[in-house]
Write a structure and sequence with these properties.
The structure is a homodimer of 190-residue chains. Chain A has 190 residues and is mainly α. Chain A has one domain: Hypothetical protein af1432. Chain A is built from eleven helices and two strands. Chain A is globular, with a radius of gyration of 17 Å. The termini of chain A are far apart. At the A-B interface, helix 1, helix 2, helix 3 and helix 11 of A face helix 1, helix 2, helix 3 and helix 11 of B.
């Protein structure tokens, strides 16, 4: 019973992810997306797009990764990928957040989820590469549907967009090919 | 490439789930939860609580179920479980929605997801039972944290709450035992 109580405390705590606003907006919309919605959408994209992975991957592992990947932002907040004033490798603060949040769970469960989050962050395994591809691909679709979205709003040059979204290719060459076309087409209109 | 374009159209379409408001509110909050946030939370609960399932289950299958279970509401809307004026078995309208929404995907993928959604709806397999347990358990936690929440707001009697949440037991007797205690304790204060 003690395990269940710890798990329920964690389930209540992670509700806070629904209040973390991202810079990007929903499709054809002005409304900002929050991290819980974003995580759900990445999970759905994983389910539907897994056949385009460059290599065979463990779907369950990718799903777990995308579901938990932003939980640390409950403590550390969302950092906009094109924000040049903040350090995107603030792993010390994020690691502390991971330890606090996942640490609410029974020990073995906490350890496993922290390891999974670190694997995602490193982006080295095939599952992490695909999960990160989804994480980069969603804002491409959103910004394309919003006439440039955050790229236009923050005047991000095309070269920088292509550079930051390039990791899509490590997960899926097919999706990266589509993404490049979307970005090229969009920037012709901006 | 044609498959990818179909899948991307589906990914854009399901963004609408983020606009479907549920009756229940976030933890300790007045803000209503939307279906995308709800689906993400059920997926997280599945990950963390699966050890309490009455029987061994396929976690990947449960995750898929909870991620997609409310997509039909994009067309048919959310029906409050205690609303006595509406038919909760409006399967004709929901089936039409499932066929339209999942039908945007390549055929085999559409067929598989419709079958999975129907399996969830029937609630007969072990995976469907656990998925439905999560779907009933989240509002118990939310309402308990909100001083009665929708139960108080809509003056739902305790017996009706216990009756509607009972399916938690089909997925997990341990979680049902906890839920009954929460409900009994809460109604003493209402």
């Amino acid at each position: 019973m003690n395990r269940l109580l710890q798990q329920i405390a964690f389930i209540k705590e992670i509700d806070k992810l629904k209040y973390i606003q991202r810079k990007t907006r929903l499709f054809n919309s002005d409304r900002h997306e929050n991290d819980a919605e974003h995580s759900w959408h990445l999970a759905m994209m994983t389910l539907v797009l897994v056949e385009h992975s460059n290599v065979e991957i463990d779907v369950l592992k990718v799903l777990k990764m995308v579901l938990i990947h932003d939980l640390v932002e409950i403590d550390s907040g969302d950092i906009f990928i094109f924000d040049t004033t903040k350090n995107h490798d603030n792993t010390a603060e994020e690691l502390k957040a991971a330890k606090r949040i996942f640490g609410m769970l029974p020990e073995a469960q906490a350890t496993a989820l922290i390891a999974l989050w670190l694997e995602f962050e490193s982006g080295e395994t095939n599952e992490a590469k695909f999960a990160k591809a989804m994480d980069r691909f969603e804002p491409i679709l959103q910004n394309a549907s919003n006439n440039g979205g955050t790229w236009r709003e923050y005047k991000v040059p095309k070269e920088k967009v292509l550079d930051k979204t390039k990791p899509v290719a490590f997960g899926s060459k097919a999706i990266w090919e589509y993404s490049q076309n979307e970005i090229e087409t969009l920037f012709k209109t901006l």
